[in-house]
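SAMPLE LOG
Freezer: B-3
Tube label: C17
Construct: single chain, 466 aa
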Amino acid sequence: RLRLAVGAARRRVVASWSTLEAAEGRARVPSFYALELVRAAEGHLPRFGELAAAATAATTARVGWPAPEDPEAAIDVAEHDLALLRRALADGRKSALAHLHDAPFLQRSLRQRARRWRTSKWTPADGLVEPEGEARALLAPHRTAARSYSATGLQRFASCPYQFALYHVLKLQPRETAEAIETLDALQRGSLVHDAQFETLRALREAGLQPLAHPQVFAAAGAVLDEAFDRVAAEYAELLAPAIPRVWEDTLEALRGDLHRWLGALHRSALEEGWEPEAFELAFGLKTLPGETPRRDAASQDAPVALDLGEGVSMRLRGAIDLVEARDGALRATDHKTGRVPAYLGKRSEPRIAGGRALQPLLYARALEAMRADAEVVGGRLHYCTARGGFEERHVALDDAGREELRVVVGEVDAAVERGFLPAAPLAGACRWCDYAEVCGPHEERRMKSKRGGPLARLDALRKRR
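STRUCTURE (predicted):
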């Protein structure tokens, strides 16, 4: 890896290391890689003392001001700015810093950043943390019983409460930018697959090709799927205008193969277990824009589903169940996924809520139960219906234990909104794919380690629930 890193440089290689262990106040010894670099550059293997002396002569950086004296020797933007600032302060040129006094937003930003790093207590600088007065009153309309939430939205709370607040309370979203489409991204791929599944199942119903367990029905279903997929793919090609036709066509053919395997899985489920498709894209609480004709089941409803989860915990849920299957009067809710199976779901075990990150099976089962009081709902299912997901399934039973887990996680979200404690406290790795990394900065996982426990005890306990 060191060889690859050095070989990737075009003009020069800068190697640096911390010469002081800031937490313990002792000197740090560089790794053996530093010696190897010097030997490769100068032809001899130095002693650690020689290397330390050379490093001391090369930089004037110190703890509290990690920047060289010469701005040209900086290795990143932060070092360059600090070096310029040091020079201005040393020369007494206050005019060089006068613009900082006239930039209140910059001052506030720097003060907030300092508060976040210098104290082990949770403060408003750490996110949406215990607001007072009118600010706290503004959170009341965002409690789970006061407004509707989607299952995906509630899952954001376990990943990071501040991400939940930015998305649901402040309603911040990344700006969309026009880009040339070469192939489908994850969201586009998922939308295309879901639309093709809906069109296939609707065409089968309209043609009277039921039940799916019948061999002759399944034999004819493949041609119906191809026709539906071609229609949907043409719509997306018109909308996205792909730049490279060959790449686009290869992607579509791969998805076509995935959909045929998905159809085969539905046939086996109907044949071996008795589960037959009954409704698809059963929506509740989703708004329809003027002139829009969404792909939804005829039994869908405009209002969100009100769920009484027990012990004073309630919520209003919005969303769409991809597939409702029936067997001998019983129902189950299936949500189709086009990505990979996340590690927190495990390979063998089937956790009920996975620490608050997998709520769709139970929430959709409860919604189906509320909408279909005449039927028994046995549970929910996640079906990873593409080659990316290995066509794996995860089943969650709607039993007493599942109902209790759902009550606990929704209750925790509601309590956090009520008291106004939604800090930037991400799970390990959550910042990597977060849309709000520019809001928080790149080091939230490391920064929050000094603030564990106390107010975060309830969140930590939630994340451990399976």
